[in-house]
Amino acid sequence: MKIGVYVCECGINIAATVDVPEVVEKVKSFPNVEICRYNKYTCSDPGQESIRKDIKELNLDRVVVASCSPRMHEPTFRAVVEETGINPYCFEMVNIREHVSWVHKDKEKATEKAVALIAGAVARAQFLEPLERKEVSVIPKSLVVGGGIAGIQAALEIATDGFQVYLVEQSPSLGGRMAQLDKTFPTLDCSACILTPKMVDVARHPNIELLTYSEIEKVDGYIGNFKVTVKKKPRYVDTDKCVGCGLCAEACRLKGRVLNEFDENLSKRSAIYIPFPQAVPLKYTIDSNRCNMLRFGKCGDELLCVEACEQNAIDFEQKEEFVELDVGTIVVATGYDNFDPSNEPKYGYKENPNVITGMEFERLVNAAGPTEGHLEINGKEPENVVFIQCVGSRDKEGHEYCSRVCCMYTAKQAHMVRDKFPDAIISVYFTDVRAFGKGFEEFYNRVLDEDINYLRRELDDSIEVVGNEKGVIVKAEGHPDIHADLVVLATGLVPKSDNKEIARKLNISLSGDGFFMEAHPKLRPLDTFTDGVFLAGCCQSPKDIPDAVAQASGAAVRAASPLAQGKVVVEAITAIIDEDLCSGCRICENLCAYTALEFVSDDKIMKINDVLCKGCGSCAAACPTGAITMKHYSNKQVLAQIGGILNQ
Amino acid sequence: MDEYEPNIIGFLCNWCSYAGADLAGTSRISYPTNIKIIRVMCSGRVDPAFVLEALKKGADGVLVSGCHFGECHYKSGNYKANRRIKLTKKFLEEMGINPNRVRFEFISASEGNRFAEVVTEFVDELKELGPLSLQLIQ
Ligand SMILES: Cc1cc2nc3c(=O)[nH]c(=O)nc-3n(C[C@H](O)[C@H](O)[C@H](O)COP(=O)(O)OP(=O)(O)OC[C@H]3O[C@@H](n4cnc5c(N)ncnc54)[C@H](O)[C@@H]3O)c2cc1C
Ligand code: FES
Question: What is the pLDDT confidence band of residue B135, given thresholds at 50, 70 and 90?
Fold first, then answer.
């Protein structure tokens, strides 16, 4: 057995805290170590080349690299050894950066620890065995979850690449939050004008199957072969018959009595509704929480909607349906929720009708909104308007992050107030104006020139909005009180309340902020830890529309590439059973979460289906006779590693 | 005299806890050098025999850490690990070894801070317990 060990200095990332030459000196004397070297950057071209050269010249049969986390560069080095004729599973990586040099300060102790970890890896390496990686075929279809701008963009891109896409949207229509916006910074395009054509493109695209008013129920399988169960909620309207004429909503007994969530509850709709006039698909839905017929089994003495519908489309018998989709890859684009300022009494939200959120403002200035675009509070045009920024963002006790869009949407909204009311007094309480995007600073400067008072306050300074008979008084520490008749809170973007549940279903992680976590913050920002599942838009972190769209196009490329290749290589790490040792006790059978273990009653032994096995090793840890071997994490390998580390 | 430094082996699942330890690294949150980490795919892979072997070979404590309940990459490996570690602790107690030398923790990929805290706390606890001497027991 000849082992080559390569210790990386990672510039000074490792070398500053670990005495790399000393590590190399010690490791040289370990059993079976044929060569030990160090490089400035082992992952660089010269670093990789030195490994290749040694493999050839010294006939190495195992390679150990001590550098950064295997979650970063294991694939890189596996590829290096594989190119040079060593099986990739005969490679072992030691993490002396994230787990040593970056977390320790004492050089002597850190050096000792690095030596011990490498000793463990060298001991383990002697027992590593070549494994065959399986190639599985890929179902050439993709699933996009969420039909906001990010999901729409991703679906269109994948479909245009020639693959079939299922787009699953929870609400009755595509569009997401962007559909609620009036104009968009920094160019002031009308949001609906740029969004709705794309929604129509989705509906018309021959490669896209749109499932609205639907949710992901369950996800099984792995990259290339996901099996997704989708729940189609009953609309109580036959979408094949509904032509979207709206006669039903006109007739509905509850017309004008049901809060309209699309208008942020500032208007009222019927119990049968479309969220907004340009909805895609243009099909009505009955709100089962409000419809009298669905709640009480009767609605007056006749069903007005049924009477009104000329198409006979209303069907109170509709049930939820489950459909199974087979897809190769998944793009998650489930977006964000708006921060609810009623959690923070100091802003006086809900107490005073004069205090509204940014999203409510969008609806109020929108020509199709509750007031047909007339910005009025209690029937009166505002004369003194105050914007308060960073509501629910940049709060160390709550959401610590910056929501990235509020500075710019505030500037946009201030501009719109100025546009409508040339004589209004407009003030903005800000802490830092973050105008980082293309055209943002220019836009902000333009708004500053429109006679808008930007007033700086520290995040920790107190601010309070109190009602009085005329409106409200905004009391900000260090500033004179402002008597205002409209206060707009620049509420932040927060993770969707069901993110945890979605993460569980898709087997992906959440970051500390509650948004979905990318596989690497810099180099794999669109991937998740689960192969074949990608992220787009605000579900990953708050972002504006240009960034959401760019990320969605990127995620679409990531999701389409396995479909184009038709095959993916899956991990070879599975369990195997030694039939001679298996006593047929069946302890392992119930431990497997994937029903990969099956009892063969004729032979009284267990058999494993290695396509189903995901390689967790739960069975191996429990087998009383030691008949189950977990490939790449066998007892021999792990015990040797323990011994190696502790021998030091 | 040098202060006694306990030796800890940590078995961390690849998907949550190992990533959590990586995050402690990328965030430069420091903790004592006493822990040496062994990566396993899932905490469910940790055979009680690994824990015993570590103690036998000179570890003073063993940390097993996995994803939070409901978040295991393999659905339920951490439930199994939790059960096994409980049993292992009982077994240790019968052998006269303080069961607190073995710890089971839930650390997610975003809890770099928590990982550092757990290690720091565990080191302090083991310092109090003193070195594990198996000779004494035999
Ligand atoms: C007040 C305000 C003003 C703004 N103004 C601007 C602006 O002027 N310019 C700009 O660039 N940006 C602006 N933004 C930001 C903009 O809203 C976002 O960048 C954009 O909406 C992000 O799109 P998305 O697709 O990622 O998420 P979303 O728009 O939230 O869409 C997500 C979609 O997924 C669906 N969904 C969620 N969960 C599930 C599930 N489990 N299953 C199926 N479907 C699901 C939702 O129903 C929704 O349709 C503003 C934001 C706010 C709050
Ligand atoms: S993968 Fe983390 S505990 Fe199972």
Answer: low
pLDDT in tens, A200-234: 999 999 999 999 999 999 998 889 999 999 999 99
Interface contact flag, B22 A95, Cβ < 8 Å: yes
Chain-chain contact of B42 with A617 (C-beta, under 8 angstroms): yes
Alpha helices in A324-482 (DSSP H): 358-364, 406-420, 440-448
Q: Assess contact for A66 and A96: CB atoms under 8 A.
A: yes
Chain A residues touching B75 at Cβ < 8 A: 593
Taking residues A350-368, what's their average pLDDT?
96
CATH code, A135-233+320-333+498-564: 3.50.50.60
Atom of ligand 2 nearest to the CA of B16: 2
Alpha helices in A375-432 (DSSP H): 406-420
Q: Residues of B with CB below 8 A from A620's CB?
A: 45, 47
Which pLDDT value is given to residue A8?
97
CATH number, domain A575-630, options 3.40.630.30, 3.30.300.20, 3.30.70.20, 3.20.20.140: 3.30.70.20
pLDDT tens track for B49-73: 999 999 999 999 999 999 999 889 9
Tell which CATH classification among 3.50.50.60, 3.30.40.10, 3.40.50.720, 3.20.20.70 matches the domain A337-494: 3.50.50.60
Mean pLDDT, chain B, whole residue set: 94
pLDDT band at B122, cuts 50/70/90? very high
Residues A370, A372, A377, A383, CA torsion sign: positive
Contacts of B39 in chain A (CB under 8 A): 70
Q: Ligand 2 center to residue A110 CA distance, Å?
A: 28
Q: Are A4 and A62 in contact (CB under 8 A)?
A: yes
Please name the fold of domain A3-133: Rossmann fold (3.40.50)
CB contact under 8 A, B30 and A105: yes
The domains of chain A are located at 3-133, 135-233+320-333+498-564, 247-308, 337-494, 575-630
Give counts: helices (H), strands (E), chain B: 5, 4
Among all bound ligands, the one having the nearest atom to the CA of A404 is: 1
